[in-house]
Design goal:
With 225 residues, this protein is mostly helical. Helix content is 76%, strand content 0%. The radius of gyration is 19 Å and the shape is globular. The protein contains 13 helices and no strands.
């Protein structure tokens, strides 16, 4: 049942994953992998208080499982409680036994970007890249910071780097790359990239975001009429 739940979670079938995990926990309430996975389900469903409940249960039972502090940090970031978020993310990032600290460094960088503290964000990005320079989210985040600093060519290179590190292109990364191409005045590459992103976008919100970018390019005269 646990394996089925993880399969559904990875496939994005959150309701099925939730159902399987709750059944697994009914049989064995101390099954911490199921508790943690249920926290991830609720995090993805944006039911943050429920997610926090399950992640805190894991942290109380397995305080040396450092990935849970990373998840707790993400939840508190979404809730807008940045101080507690940072405390938990730093706990994960600096733990010697944490095998994937790049996750926590990426989330620390996103936390700082939300607060427009770009120097601090870049510091966490570079620390994460020292741990794993093939972690695509960090390359993408570096592009975001450089774009905010109006260093568009450098940002473009990091967005492209992020995309090369993936087996399948990420729609968000494509949007970022298309946007920075537009800012560089390369309308052809901007439009090609945004149309590629549009072909891979499945949610109405993402499609609307891409259409807005293309419409803005038309309004600004960045697309030939």
């Amino acid at each position: 049942m646990m394996n089925e739940a993880i399969f559904h979670l990875k496939a994005g079938n959150l309701d099925l994953a939730e159902k399987k995990l709750l059944k697994a926990l009914k049989k064995n309430p101390t099954l911490m992998p199921a508790v943690n996975a249920l926290g991830i389900v609720y995090l993805n469903k944006r039911e943050f208080q429920k997610a926090l409940k399950y992640f805190k249960q894991v942290s109380r039972t397995q305080p040396d499982y450092y990935d849970v502090y990373n998840y707790i940090g993400v939840v508190y970031t979404e809730l807008g409680d940045y101080d507690i978020a940072k405390e938990n993310l730093l706990m994960a990032a600096n733990a010697d036994k944490y095998t994937t600290p790049e996750n926590a460094f990426a989330n620390l960088a996103m936390l700082e970007i939300k607060q427009k503290r770009y120097d601090s964000a870049m510091r966490y990005i570079n620390k994460g890249l020292q741990k794993n320079d093939h972690f695509a989210p960090l390359s993408n985040l570096k592009g975001i910071v450089l774009e905010q600093r109006k260093k568009y060519k450098e940002a473009m290179l990091w967005y492209k780097q992020a995309l090369t590190l993936l087996t399948e292109p990420d729609v968000t990364y494509l949007i970022n790359l298309g946007r920075v191409y537009s800012k560089m005045g390369d309308k052809g590459k901007a439009l090609d990239t945004l149309e590629r992103a549009l072909s891979k976008a499945f949610t109405p919100n993402i499609k609307e975001e891409i259409h807005k970018l293309i419409n803005q390019m038309e309004k600004d005269g960045n697309i030939d009429q």
